[in-house]
Amino acid sequence: MTQLIRVGIVGYGNLGRGVVQAISQNPDMTLIAVFTRRDPNQMEAEVGIKFEHISAAEKYIGEIDVMILCGGSATDLPEQTPQLAAMFNTVDSFDTHAKIPEFFEAVDQAAKQGKTLSVISTGWDPGLFSLNRLLTESILPVGDEYTFWGKGVSQGHSDAIRRVPGVKAGVQYTVPIESVIDRIRSGETPELETRDKHLRQCFVVAEEGADQEQIRQTIVSMPNYFADYETTVTFITEEELKTEHHGMPHGGFVIRSGITGHKTKQIIEFGLKLESNPEFTASVLVAYARAAVRLHNDGAVGAKTVFDIPFGLLSPKSAAELRKELL
Amino acid sequence: MTQLIRVGIVGYGNLGRGVVQAISQNPDMTLIAVFTRRDPNQMEAEVGIKFEHISAAEKYIGEIDVMILCGGSATDLPEQTPQLAAMFNTVDSFDTHAKIPEFFEAVDQAAKQGKTLSVISTGWDPGLFSLNRLLTESILPVGDEYTFWGKGVSQGHSDAIRRVPGVKAGVQYTVPIESVIDRIRSGETPELETRDKHLRQCFVVAEEGADQEQIRQTIVSMPNYFADYETTVTFITEEELKTEHHGMPHGGFVIRSGITGHKTKQIIEFGLKLESNPEFTASVLVAYARAAVRLHNDGAVGAKTVFDIPFGLLSPKSAAELRKELL
């Protein structure tokens, strides 16, 4: 029996909780500690997990094989990933697409100095969707690619709703337009903007006495967020919000419609239907944590992305087992 | 500008022709020659391609970066891949699942002796479907996997039909059962045999005066091929066979239905809808030919499968471009 992979988690929100659960599904891994900015003594009672203040991470050098970073992309990861990559192998889900190149450079430098390995920007988009965009473009260089997101909650759009005067609470779902998906599945290759592919469904709890028609107007005419989209606003009670909109479902599709030979249509589709976005993202992070440790054991250092990692490293099975069972 | 990848093709059936077309879609590649067991002088006139007898391959050592092997798995590849791997980097689509481990060993030995690199068993199944089985099992270790094939022509079953007395010609389509796919997409995880997931549709041209009911009975009761399946037999004219059944469509789905956390359902689906099976397989071989050359340039030798190869190597784009454009 090979040694267990010793995992640390940084951050204990929805994603960090998902990682704890995912580790329990992978018998080759063990959770050493969860690092948090909160007071670890106040958390200890919560569950059977060892909590440490994030400032204590350094003491765990040599005792943790990989740190799974579960902070946000806006402020946490740009600071935490380079810091921790100097000491540990890391995996994160940095998802600000436009800033990935500079993030990569910062982490790459830190990891090379620390002789560690960091997998950045994994999860499902960036992550599995990116892998499919790359795979399908490489196989069908003549073609068009379509990414659809949803049905799922968009945090940014939900926040925007909640800033509207008279709104007490609310949630926004991004919904791919089924008829557009069907056109592409049947071989059409229309030019589409994001707004042509998605609806926005808003469920809003209004404050008592608030003007619902005015709230609706403010939402549907909000630039960048809603003005360009087909947007519906449905007013619901606080109770309905709690019971019917507490989940974090998400998903989507990457479809490539390509041409080979003489106008031969070839369509590749990858899709996700997730009841919990953070639990699924956590499961992806955990598989890539295994790959990070193995790559590092093989002598690799620096920042890596999903594009650099063969799938064989994601599985606890040996290469010979994989060839026999799954090829 | 980096140097063009110089490609050779061995075998000039449907797959070999598909590879010629796929190379023309990839500007970083150039076709050097097609090697065949037939008389190359008789083929020269056919198209603007250089044909060589397969016995002349050795003369091309140093002039071809990768050989794409387009022979069959039954007798061609078990002989050709080890032979050619001793001299060239190779890519093939060996698809006899049960014999992959011994095929891998034979090719690995030849390639290591020749200091070359061979990617075996790529295409879509084995190939892209295998990649998805591995990826999704690694991410969702608690779950069930379903592979559906079709709608597509099965050569083996079409041959079986044609051996029935009174049958002049015929073709068999394997068709996934839509209602079963829908059950799995909606989260059910039934235990299913291949026969529970697929129908078999036979289109038969009977010889003049043949007993159609007897032909139908012989087909639907044929052990291994049809007896266990829901099978339909439709009699058509030779003309209809030519006009409506000349294509080689295929496709299918790999669906994993998994659980995270406390009974949270997570579904991952990968699907192909192909108007031409050989042209698509050829396109996959060509992308992996690029990866084979790059891996070899980095010093790797021996046999590899799709599980060993990071997707980044499939694309002509640089790692930095890929991170910026596709992650």
From TrEMBL, chains A, B:
It catalyses: meso-2,6-diaminopimelate + NADP(+) + H2O = (S)-2-amino-6-oxoheptanedioate + NH4(+) + NADPH + H(+). Coiled coil: none annotated. Transmembrane segments: none annotated. Residues 123-276 form the Meso-diaminopimelate D-dehydrogenase C-terminal domain. Keywords: Amino-acid biosynthesis, Diaminopimelate biosynthesis, Lysine biosynthesis, NADP, Nucleotide-binding, Oxidoreductase. It is an enzyme of class 1 (oxidoreductase). GO terms for biological process: diaminopimelate biosynthetic process; lysine biosynthetic process via diaminopimelate. NCBIfam families: DAP-DH. Homodimer. This is Meso-diaminopimelate D-dehydrogenase. The lineage of its organism: Bacteria, Bacillati, Bacillota, Bacilli, Bacillales.
